[in-house]
Amino acid sequence: MAERSLEELVERCRTGDDQAWAALVDATADSIYRLAVSFTRHRGEAEELTQEVFLKLWQNLDRYESGSSFRAWAYRVARNLFVDAYRRSRHEKRATWVDPEFLSTLSGGDDPHAVAVRRQRLEMARSALARLPDELARLILLRDFADWSYEELAAEFSLPLGTVKSRLNRARRDLAEVVGATLVPHPAAVRAGVQP
Fold first, then answer.
1. Average pLDDT score over residue span 126-134
2. Most C-beta atoms within 10 A of its C-beta, which of 18, 51, 63, 101?
């Protein structure tokens, strides 16, 4: 749905139009949910967080500035909730758990070896994203996990399209370097003859 149509739905929601709210949720729920799954890697938790996001959006609809991107505003609200949830889960030592049901929806979900490899790669990617500067991590999350277009990213970050593409390229290179550094064996392991 076009951004302008979303803004019109928001205006209708502000007047109490329940059908407009349902349409707004329908238009944005999938991308919010995908983003929640990328943060939590657990379907149940992602569903709960998605519901929390929409509750928060409803409660704060009067704070949305007309003329700005509703998707960007919704993403900021979602991201703040997801970060809070991640911090809570880290304290509960649940942050590294990956929902087996979610993994089974990915290709190769029945193969135990493929599931284990995928779990390890997801954890490595999540850990590496946490080490990137915030803007670069957000670019990767929005483009690669939430399927935002380059144009939506340009609007969100108030950057020219070319700059978005070059920063996304830099973000992916930095992410690859961080992941690569975690794959390099520790010098003590090399001296001991342990193979990676």
1. 79
2. 51
